[in-house]
Write a structure and sequence with these properties.
Chain A has 228 residues and is of the alpha/beta class. Chain A has helices spanning 3-14, 20-32, 34-59, 72-83, 86-92, 99-124, 162-170, 211-227; strands spanning 126-134, 154-159, 176-183, 188-194, 200-206. Chain A has two domains: 1-94; 123-227. Chain B has two domains: 1-109, RNA polymerase sigma factor, region 2, helix turn helix motif (Rna Polymerase Sigma Factor, Chain: A, Orthogonal Bundle), CATH 1.10.1740; 124-204, Winged helix-like DNA-binding domain superfamily/Winged helix DNA-binding domain (Arc Repressor Mutant, subunit A), CATH 1.10.10.10. Chain B has eleven helices and no strands. Chain B has helices at residues 4-12, 16-34, 43-55, 70-95, 102-106, 109-122, 125-140, 144-154, 160-167, 171-189, 193-203.
């Protein structure tokens, strides 16, 4: 038996196409020639490998059939089960990779820092109301001098000169809540305060005619300011 | 339209649209692999296997570096599943007590699936890609008619009789043609000895 006839016969046996007579002929050939036995063994492996793998390599090139529409929900469910609900995925991941989570952390940190600063500033802020007066006003009319004892919740600041008093009137420090002063020239009580939004508001009201009434007026103003 | 890199990134974060796109792209390969001639499943059974193979890609997506790796991966999964399913079906039949004699046992179809299962389960996507390239190159060296004959025999497991009818050849010539072509392909595959040795090892 020549080599080509042997390969043909061996392949027929491997492909289960051989008759019983052909099987016997192959057995006889391999018995009389050991090289044929080895050749059969090699051919069997090649046949086996290619019969298993050739359909798989062909499958990698397949372009049809299309995915049946009625199986889509099943696949979507599998995706949800594996990755979790879509809204959770959206909240934890996004289209911009790591950039936006990083920004979110930074901004989140920024907001937290800002809040912390506000809390700290508020804790440092002075809720005390200052009352500004000329030194001479405290002895106005020969009455008992106006002092901190009249309005314990306030801090009385006295001035001897116009310039520092004017300067004091113009400023309300970041940690100051309010100022009150008496404008004797115009008989007005000035109230300057910072509102909830941080804006400075100045209001005036007619000054009470007597020292006693002025003390009461200032006390009421201070009480009112401390509530705001 | 997704680029491969965008699609892979979106798949990793579990984007629904990206997965739908991937499933659509990969289903034809998964279905073709599930219809492996050794398994000979019905179209309906193959469809079930293909869908299962696609879902099994979900946990694998973080293990790949290129989108291209998904296709050979789903093919190996679907082929293995299909062959296992066929083996299970036959084992169920055998469990009914149909097989009694030693000869019948030796000729048992289920035994034929063991090397196929073994090989399919060990094969990586890279192996399959390399093998696919090798096989294409080997077949391209044959005359187109002979290449198609061998392809029908190996890929679709067409019988000698059907091949003789399709190619209008005497049945005796079919074997000779196949033997010559197979020898040439075998010689070409051996040009990648590492892969060839691995394949043989899985079959032993």
């Amino acid at each position: 038996m020549d080599a080509e006839s042997f390969t043909n016969l061996a392949l027929r046996v491997l492909a289960r196409e051989a008759t019983d007579e052909e099987r016997r002929a192959l057995d006889a050939a391999m018995t009389s020639n050991l090289a044929y036995r080895e050749e059969f063994s090699q051919l069997k492996i090649a046949h086996e490998v290619l019969r298993i793998l050739a359909p798989m390599t062909e499958a990698t090139q397949a372009r049809e059939p299309e995915l049946p529409a009625y199986r889509l929900n099943e696949l979507r469910t599998a995706v949800r089960q594996h990755f979790g609900p879509a809204n959770q995925r959206a909240s934890t991941m996004n289209n911009h990779g790591l950039l936006t989570p990083a920004l979110r952390w930074l901004l989140g940190g920024g907001v937290m820092t800002a809040l912390a600063i506000v809390v700290v500033l508020m804790s440092f802020s002075d809720r005390m109301v200052e009352i500004g007066l000329y030194q001479t006003d405290t002895v106005r009319g020969g009455d008992t001098p106006f002092s901190s004892a009249d309005v314990p919740a306030a801090h009385v600041v006295t001035f001897n000169q116009d310039a520092p008093f004017d300067q004091w009137k113009k400023t309300l420090g970041w940690n100051q809540h309010a100022k009150v002063w008496i404008d004797n020239e115009n008989d007005l009580l000035h109230v300057v305060r910072r509102d909830k939004n941080g804006q400075i508001i100045e209001q005036t009201e007619p000054l009470a005619p007597t020292n006693r009434e002025q003390r009461e007026q200032i006390s009421r103003a201070v009480e009112s300011l401390q509530k705001k | 339209m997704w680029t491969d890199r965008e699609l892979l990134t979106a798949l990793r974060r579990g984007d629904d649209d990206a997965w739908e796109e991937a499933f659509r792209r990969l289903y034809p390969s998964a279905f073709a692999a599930a219809r492996h001639p050794l398994a000979a499943l019905t179209p309906s059974e193959a469809e079930d296997i293909a869908i299962e193979a696609l879902t099994l890609l979900l946990p694998k997506v973080n293990q790949i570096t290129e989108l291209d790796e998904l296709r050979p991966l789903v093919v190996t999964i679907a082929s293995r599943k299909a062959i296992s399913e066929k083996r299970r079906q036959l084992a169920d039949k055998r469990g009914g007590g149909d097989v009694t004699s030693l000869d019948a046992m030796q000729d048992d179809e289920t035994l034929r699936f063991e090397p196929a299962e073994q090989l399919a389960s060990h094969l990586t996507g890279t192996d399959l890609r390399e093998l696919s390239q090798l096989l294409d190159a080997a077949l391209s060296h044959l005359e187109p008619r002979h290449a198609q004959l061998l392809r029908d025999f190996l890929v679709y497991h067409v019988s000698y009789k059907e091949l003789a009818e399709k190619y209008r050849m005497p049945i005796g010539s079919i074997g000779v043609n196949l033997a010559r072509s197979l020898d040439k392909v075998r010689a070409h595959l051996k040009t990648s000895p590492k892969l060839w040795k691995e394949l043989i090892a899985y079959l032993r």
